[in-house]
Amino acid sequence: MVVGRLNRTQFELIDGILLLDKPAGMTSNQALQRVRRLLAARKAGHTGSLDPSATGMLPLCFGEATKVCQYLLAADKTYRVSARLGIATDTGDADGAEIARADVPELSGERWSAILASFIGQSLQVPPMYSALKQGGKRLYELAREGQTVEREPRPICVTAISLLENSGTRLVFRVRCSKGTYVRSLVEDIAEKAGTCAHTARLHREGVGDFDASAMLDLSTVERLAAEDRRALIARLLPPDVALAGLPPVRLTAASGRFVAGQVIPGIGTDLTGLVRVYGSDEVFLGVGEVSAAGDLAPRRVFQVASGQIGVADRRIVASR
Question: Which CATH number fits domain 8-74+212-241: 3.40.50.1460, 3.90.480.10, 3.40.1390.10, 3.30.2350.10?
Fold first, then answer.
């Protein structure tokens, strides 16, 4: 489907989150720009990049919802991982060139489960050379393509859950929930090394980001179809921004909503909560993210506003283009 060129006046202020099931062969930014044009959304951003060969959940944020990107970046991610045992590649995935082979030991499902379980918890992981991290002003993958290998500082990661789904010959499939900054390709290599072989990631599918429901994902073909049939129907499928903040406890202001939106600290709000919270007005309108001090004062950290000055808990409105 070819989308005609839109000029600036044809883009609208649209607020909400679309959970895209990203296809393989497309960068995260290419996916974002594609959907942005289908929605004709003026402001857009994505969170938690996926490699071009990877598929699965890519939260695309539009309008005011771009303010939640920083919180989604910190969220745990859940992946379904298919590994090819016995062959290592320079990139750690199926797109790379073969660099090593090793025999694959015959291990029972119980033994594989035990090996996987040993990776639960906090650890230090060395980032792969084929990554977007910078060293000396250059991306590591740029140095790797020049044939260079440089020392990389290990980075703290946390695996909160990991489970075996399938093991058969050279095929190993598992599900893992891990912290931000975890390189699954490196995790696969480390798992294989512990099993006495080598491996690369054959397929990577992200099933979840934070608390998002995977059933809300839309594949690109569905997005294109909805945009062609009725763009308003596509916009109606967007999730409200506060859905991304389900992990924060809610606070409801019976008064002083206007002061919060204006960026003022609200003293003594009468809650035992401390730290970051979701803030709603008395009419259940989502106002933004605040932080409650030990003294019970509420300070605005991210205020959410559209042209009307409000975003509803389940609001999926288009705001008229200015």
Answer: 3.30.2350.10
What is 77-209's CATH topology?
A: Pseudouridine synthase (3.30.2350)
pLDDT at 321 over 50: no
**For residue 62, how many other CB atoms are within 10 A of its CB?**
25
**105 touches 195 (CB < 8 A):** yes
Q: Spell out the residues 6+ positions from residue 116 whose beta carbon is closer than 8 angstroms to its own.
A: 162, 163, 164, 174, 191
Q: Helices 184-194 and 109-117 sit at what angle, rounded to 10 degrees? A: 120
Q: For 267-304, give one letter per residue: b (16+ CB within 10 A) or e.
A: eebeeeeeebbbbbbeeebbbbbbbbeeeeebebebbb
Exactly one of 15, 21, 51, 242 is catalytic; name it. Answer: 51
**In this model, does residue 310 exceed pLDDT 90?**
no
Contact 297, 265 (CB under 8 A): yes
> What is the structure's pLDDT at 3?
36
Residue at 221: amino acid letter: S
User: What confidence score (pLDDT) does residue 8 get?
Assistant: 53
Assess whether 190 carries a catalytic annotation: no
pLDDT band at 87 (very low <50, low <70, confident <90, very high): very high
CATH number of 248-319: 2.30.130.10
Confidence at 152, pLDDT banded by 50, 70, 90: confident
pTM: 0.85
